[in-house]
Design a protein that fits this description.
Elements (H helix, E strand, L loop, with lengths): L2 H18 L24 E6 L5 H8 L12 E3 L5 E3 L21 H4 E6 L9 H18 L6 E3 H4 L13 H6 L19 H8 L6 H12 L14 H17 L2
Helix pairs in contact: 7-9
Length: about 250
């Protein structure tokens, strides 16, 4: 090895070592009086996406580079064959949810783990994919202490902007394995005075755009795609499902 190269490598090594042992940054306006009572920021919800692209390779490129609409990322990507890729550390904030809300959570990127699933719009999900998604959900909920009911779709939190993971995503299969909310027991007509919009808000949906909220609800709970229908409304079965969901929300609320 020549001398200049050797010196350069040693300099890089010294710099990396210094960075590894650099003290944390503290606000110079304040007196640093450390407390041991803290931990890392923790995700409390998991958001499922569909890539809406043609291949894992294309999605890996998109999730790791700059794009026309800005940089995007996700914590995980699940391929057609069930292979799981991790792109962002669980403790970090991936740029995957964007604008939207779920219940009282308005910054989903900071509060969630994002899982992209390799899937073109309208394409059926593979058995291998769903098995891997459920295996990953089990790991994340167990290891990060995320409530298993706190699994939603991108369109649930952003009904005016997003449609993924779409009407063909098997939410009932996930619910049977214990992930996400699903109506339990016999579906019955709600009592007189039942307000579906209050029920939607209690589940987590934003109801500022009611037609968009209905379309998102239909994709999740009816496997129904209403397209961009501005007149999308609830039918009697929707109301029965909402009534059952509402009962489960209050049954699990501390």
């Amino acid at each position: 090895m020549n001398k200049p190269l050797s010196i350069a490598l040693l300099s890089c090594a010294a710099l990396l070592a210094a960075c590894a042992h650099a003290p944390p940054t503290h606000n110079p306006m304040a007196t640093w009086v450390p407390s041991p009572n803290f931990d890392e920021r923790r995700p409390v919800i998991i958001v499922l996406h569909a890539t809406e692209q043609k291949s894992v390779k294309q999605s890996l490129d998109t999730l790791r580079s700059a794009n026309r609409g800005g940089k995007v990322s996700a914590h995980y990507l699940v391929g057609d064959d069930g292979h799981i890729y991790q792109l962002v550390d669980d403790s970090k904030r991936a740029w995957q949810a964007g604008g939207g809300s779920w219940g009282a959570i308005t910054d989903l990127n900071s509060a969630s783990i994002g899982i992209e699933i390799d899937n073109e719009r309208g394409e059926a999900y593979t058995d291998a994919q769903i098995a891997s998604v459920m295996r990953l959900l089990d790991d994340l909920c167990t290891r990060l202490n995320i409530p298993r009911r706190q699994v939603i779709g991108h369109s649930d939190l952003a009904p005016t902007r997003k449609v993924d993971p779409g009407a063909r995503f098997p939410w009932k299969t996930l619910a049977d394995a214990g992930f996400g909310r699903w109506p339990q027991g016999e579906l019955v007509d709600p009592p007189s005075g039942f307000d579906p919009w209050l029920a939607m808000a209690a589940v987590g949906y934003s109801v500022r755009d009611r037609a968009a909220a209905v379309r998102a609800f239909h994709r999740h709970y009816r496997a129904q795609d209403d397209g961009d229908d501005p007149q999308a409304t609830f039918d009697s079965q929707d109301l029965r499902i909402l009534y059952a969901l509402n009962a489960s929300v209050f049954a699990t609320t501390p």
